[in-house]
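User: structure tokens for this one?
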Amino acid sequence: MHLPGSPDRFRSTGLPWALLATLAGLPQPGNAAEIDPSKLPPAVGRPVAFSTDIQPLLERACLKCHGAERPKAGYRLDSPALAVSSGDNAPSIIAGDSARSRLIHFVARQVEDMEMPPLGKGEPLTPQEIGILRAWIDQGARGDAAASGPTVTASVTTAVQFFAVSGNEGRFREHYGLREGWGGGLSEFSLKYELDPRTRAEISGRALSASGDYRFSARVERDQLGWVRLDYREFARFSDDTGGYYAPFALAAPSLADDLVIRHRHATLETGLELPDWPRLRLAYDLHWRDGSEATLNWGGLAVGGLQRNVFPGRRQVEEDTHQITLDLRHDWRGLTISDLAQLEWHTQDQLRTELPTASLPFDFGTRTRDEQDYWRASNVLRLERNVRDWLYLSAGYLYSRLKDAGGFSLESFVPSDPSTPPSLDVAAGDISIRRQSHVANGNLMAGPWNDLLLHAGVQAEWTRQESFALGRAYLTPTAFDSNLDRAATDETVGLRYTGIPSTVLFAETRFQQETYSQFEEGLSDGTPSFLRDSEDDGSLWDAEAGFTVSPWKAISLQAKYRHRDRENEYSHLRDLDLLGSGNGYPAFIRARDTVTDELDTRLVLQPLRWLKATFRYALASTDFRTLTDGWSDTSVDPPLFNPGAETRSGEYDAHTLGGAFVLTPWSRLHLSTSATWTTSRSLSGARNGEEIIPYEGQTWNWLNQATLVLDEKTDLLSTYLFSTGDFEQDNAAAGLPLGVRYTRHAAT
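Assistant:
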């Protein structure tokens, strides 16, 4: 039976057509009664063995989608027993009767919309191969006697690396995640043990010293029962310990002379249950922790000849860990898919930042800043999905989350040259607490009742409430702060896809958002109000995208899309009191903001010859920032500054990208590719139209070459070469600092 409507309409759902039909309660395609056996290639008239006749053609055409790793529709063809018994709609093979086996109907391409392998996923089986497959099924679909026992496979890949760095070794480690000099280890190792077609165990991992990358994974699983998995991963993130370079000092850039590295570790213990006709269950425990020291941008002052610049590097010591428990349930009930994901997380962290003495100050002085945090978070996501008709797919979801956070902060000053002098506690807050809860609900549909037209739409509503409070001391003065935040938002999305024009696909999508913020902030100093802000923000967003793909001939394809995005915010400042500062000021004088972005992306693909494919791309991005403020004046400078408060352009960003790529396959065993990309961008501040803040602009070039030569079934030769250069060095001689980046990079493998 050919179901009305094409399954191509629902490809974007990510669900197989067979599952969609099952959810809808529709009959499955490929009934034997509808197949004419005379149209099937005849079975060959000789004995057929699985290992020599069947396994090679399955590996070529079928195992990419129906192997041991995430088989589509649960159907596996990597062993005779599973080929007969596995799958969501088993059996696909009727031993002894190939004419009634749906696998033969599919590979013979006798069932519309169920041709296997699907278009673009592999070469179809030849009539001779189908005849061999039919003979194997007619002869009982059995495996070879010698292959009935357990099997063990193992592989190991070793690596040796050497990196010679000329220049800043710390910067090299930070950018590439590798230490200079010699390194290596095992880039991959694995051991697989298959006790029987349904029971498997696997151990895999890697160990590389240069990057500090260590991984280990162990998994045991049995089909239609469940699995247990243990994972561990460890890797390093490096920081450059060098500060800023200031030419008038005539000194090398200051350095901490320290190896700044953070060790990241992640362990997972997971178990799952997959019993037939039972809900699918997954229970997992995750532990993330990291520790070490990293660079910060809180640079200290350095003074030479009475001139000071903040170029001395800073560092922070980090210790934190996060625990997660996840429970995931999924069940199909009368065509309705129900899934629920619950998660509990708790986290602790302790960070310490030490700033060395500031050379410009007339006294010996240093600071230590400590930041502590301890929180727990609970969330639950409920999702419902159903294919109501073959042309109508519905889904809905609801999220609830709750957060409770407690922390502390302290700032101490000390005298580094006199360890006997106790540190002075300048600022401390030992009771910082945050409470937050959120509700999010959404609904979505995908409909295709009309030929060649697919519609999708969705709506989502969100409400969040957050309450914060802090109590502490600032230079012996008791202080208190509290803040409340309310957010309500609604999103609507509508999209269309039309394929009625020959060789053409048209698509369009638009998104609307309405959101409201209400924020209250209050500070008390020694029981007296120090500041009070009560503000509201009404925002709106319109984001639209449209484009097409046209391929009038097989050798030519043109793609283009245009996007327009407009976000507007209007602020109402009901109260703004700042007794410790200058009164009404930032950000209360901002009344509105408008950000408009336009993007254009075009791509032309040419394939004039079977062995030559060329791609050309051009992209444009432009963003304008506009701000409406209250009027202000500053008569303390000469000449005085005045602003009437009208709308002004506060910034602008533009970028252009040109690219081209060529893929050549002059020989079936040789694959060559080269690609080049040029990008230029410019960021402009609206302050006096770029006169006070010099625009940040520059360009980058990237050129990548790759070659692959297949020597035989077990040996490939691979090579790559990358050249990249960029120049964003700015004309800022007046500032005295070499702001901006200029680089050249070569990489060969």
